[in-house]
Amino acid sequence: MRRNAQKWIPFGFDTDSNKIVDIASVENGLSCNCICLICGTSLIARQGQNKKWHFSHSTEVKGVCSELTLQHIKKYIKVKIQEKKYLALPHLLQGKEKGIVNLKNLAGGGIVCGLNADLTGICNDTTIGIFINDTSEDIQPNPDLLAQTDQLALVEIDAVRIESIIAPYRENGEGIKMMDAIEKLLFTSDEAKRWIYHPLMQTASPHTLHQYKRHLNASGNQLLSMIPVDLPMNMNSLPLAPAQQWQHLRWTIEILAKLTRADIPSGSSVFDELVSYAPRMLDSWESINVPAYERWYDYYISKRGEGGLNEAEQEYISFIVKIANWNVSIHNLPEFDRERAFHDWFLTHDPNK
Description:
This protein is of the alpha+beta class. The chain has 3 domains: 11-66, no CATH class; 71-217, no CATH class; 227-349, no CATH class. 37% of the residues lie in helices and 18% in strands. Helix 8 (290-305) packs antiparallel against helix 9 (311-331).
């Protein structure tokens, strides 16, 4: 079962430069001169005023293709590995540093242990099968086939996790950063990758092995992608200047309004209740209704204790709590003066100046 149903094409192949490009680096419309990475159909760059930028097929699709985002991310991952010929991978054992695995004789696809690998390569004398996973199923190799050799290792790249990490760049229209983020995940980070099998697993104690934590289902990835990565304010220490205090208050309310808007993907009944009630906590453009927030927070804590929220929902609600607490903490500062804070802020934001 596929774990994500987002449909937009993030990359195209520029027929002029013979390079993969993002939506932000080409001309609008058919002038982009790009074709689909998967099927070769000409693309149209849609750089509208009100919609997130993306490519789409400009004509009837040639052969088999789709606009499922994961399919295009998967293709991009495959192309970049073939180009670089190495991967950053987690150490097999917990607590050990990641390593760079150089790959020789890289080939696209092939049957490995009864499964369709996306890539195969050789490191030292070991054949490595690479699986770029865009489904909800764990990859399960045939154990009988694994037992027949000690020169085979299998690696999974979690494309769903990678998509959830890069999604915020699309929200901000930062296509180039999106491509850079994928490359960093592949070649400098051990995140979103795991060893499915390695010959040393036969002798190592299970509790010493690196444990990969798969990240959630489709709705979970959507929720995580909505949590802003770069905040407008520094949350290491509360602001002391009155104008900055007022600015922080406004920012927190703006963030909370976005996190609790009506089009947030539905989830568990508890999550839906928490999100639907949350806007009542917003008293004005700079303050939170503290009694309403306290009732909401108490309900959240009780339902979290009962297991009413899944992992993604907990992380999402926890972020709402973090932002709300920042607002309340500023109001509770001993030196906070609401009128002075607004006055000082207004002096630097007066639209009539």
